[in-house]
Write a structure and sequence with these properties.
Blueprint (H helix, E strand, L loop, with lengths): L8 E4 L5 H11 L3 E6 L13 E3 L2 E2 H4 L6 E4 L5 H11 L4 E4 L5 H4 L4 H5 L6 E6 L14 H8 L1 H4 L14 H24 L4 E5 H6 L5 H8 L16 E5 L5 E5 L3 H10 L14 H6 L1 H13 L3 H10 L4 E3 L3 H5 L2 H5 L3 E6 L3 E6 L14 E2 L7 H9 L3 H9 L5
Parallel strand pairs: 1-2, 1-6, 2-5, 6-7, 7-8, 12-14
Antiparallel strand pairs: 3-4, 9-10, 10-11, 12-13
Helix pairs in contact: 1-8
Length: about 400
């Protein structure tokens, strides 16, 4: 069966996570993703994290499956010329350089689109291509700090806290690829490509719920709430009698009306402090203290049994180790193995989107640096062995 994106050519100049994760998702669905890397060291992500075997890191493996690697030196004029030739054959080109870098190389969109007006150029940045912050370097943690996310995360009496994963990088990858798919659909109608801009800051700002309008409309600055929800109560993490943690939420009045008798406190339903969502939120400390007292007297298995029988959204606060080995992940085959020429088979999380007719590739392969240089130059540009050898001799490719 053909994959949904077979025949789509993607030129991936991006590094680290936001770009590579996004293009990997396209490769999982059959796109020919060519990862363009410097010949001397490749994507810097190859050198991060625990190595399973030289020269690649586990970090890089998790975001680069189902791609081909082309080692190309963009510091040479010949390398830039070759990149222009490749861009002329591409459907999508993805980059996450410092804003202005492509322009300095003579690779602005107008120049790239002249021979290939159907080209979609996806540009990923920390703070956007314009504005006073545009040229600031940014990684996920910097974006967490700059976007307000870090200030909203952590205990009320504690310091601003990072989220436990590079959440902004991953969500920016999704925004960038959504933009690319929208641009592809527009190209079906117009026959022309366009630029797609996605930044870490813009993406995170769009996910702050009501924080921005509350600040601008009411001059009310949101603060840290720990694991408490800002809008509903009870909603928090509670410690059980056997020292475990459970998180529960009552989003609706109906859910609270089931939780109260489940805790043996049917009287709370008639208490005006807790009768509906708004007073429960206003008296959140009291209702959560009552909930915490019940959970603290009850073992985890019993807490979960009672909550789930009552239809209350809840879960044990699960460790990553527990998740990776869980019945749910196993039953749905959410852990797959990718192949690497040196490290062998490596277990990773599966592609997160399920399609009923054109599913993603299960697992896949991670390329070593420059492994497909010759093959890509033949497939995309029809270069012969002599021409490829000359490029190698001139150290333009490796």
């Amino acid at each position: 069966m053909k994959r949904a994106l077979e025949g789509l050519r993607v030129l991936d100049l991006s590094r680290y996570v936001a770009g590579p994760h996004g293009t990997m998702l396209l490769g999982d669905h059959g796109a020919d993703v060519v990862k363009v890397e410097p010949p001397d060291r490749g994507d810097p992500a190859r050198g991060i994290d625990r190595h399973l075997g030289p020269p690649d890191s586990l970090f890089a493996m998790t975001v680069n499956r189902n791609k081909r690697s082309l080692a190309l030196d963009l510091r040479k004029a010949e390398g830039i010329a070759l990149l222009k030739d490749l861009a002329a054959k591409a459907d999508i080109m993805v980059e996450n350089f410092k804003p202005g870098t492509l322009e300095a190389m003579g690779l602005d969109y107008a120049s790239l689109a002249a021979p290939n007006p159907r080209l979609i150029l996806v540009r990923i940045s920390g703070f956007g291509q314009t504005g006073p912050w545009a040229e600031r370097p940014a990684y996920d943690a910097i974006a967490q700090a700059a976007s307000g996310l870090m200030d909203l995360t952590g205990s009320p009496d504690g310091p601003p806290t990072m989220v436990g994963t590079i959440v902004i990088d991953y969500t920016t990858a999704l925004h960038a690829m959504l933009g690319a798919m929208i641009a592809l659909q527009a190209r079906e109608r117009t026959g022309r490509g366009q630029e797609v801009h996605a930044s870490l800051l813009d993406g995170m700002a769009s996910m702050l719920m009501t924080a921005i309008p509350e600040t601008l409309l009411f001059d009310r600055e949101p603060t840290r709430h720990g694991n408490r929800d800002r809008l509903i109560a009870p909603s928090n993490s509670f410690r059980t009698a056997d020292g475990q943690w459970v998180h529960l939420m009552t989003v609706t009045d109906d859910q609270f009306n089931r939780l109260a008798p489940a805790m043996g406190r049917s009287d709370l339903i008639e208490d005006p402090r807790f009768a509906t969502t708004l007073p429960r939120m206003q008296n959140g400390a009291e209702v959560e203290a009552i909930t915490a007292d019940w959970v603290a007297r009850t073992p985890l298995t019993e807490v979960l049994a009672v909550l789930q029988a009552a239809g209350i959204p809840s879960s044990k606060v699960t460790t990553v180790a527990e998740l990776a080995r869980s019945e749910q992940m196993q039953a749905r085959r959410r852990i797959v193995e990718i192949e690497h020429p040196v490290a062998g088979r490596v277990p990773v999380a599966a592609h997160p989107i399920e399609l009923s007719v054109t599913p993603a590739v299960e697992g896949g392969r991670v390329p070593t640096l420059g492994e497909h240089t010759a093959a890509v130059l033949k497939d995309w540009l029809a270069l012969d062995e002599r021409e490829i050898a000359a490029l190698r001799e001139a150290a333009v490719v490796a």
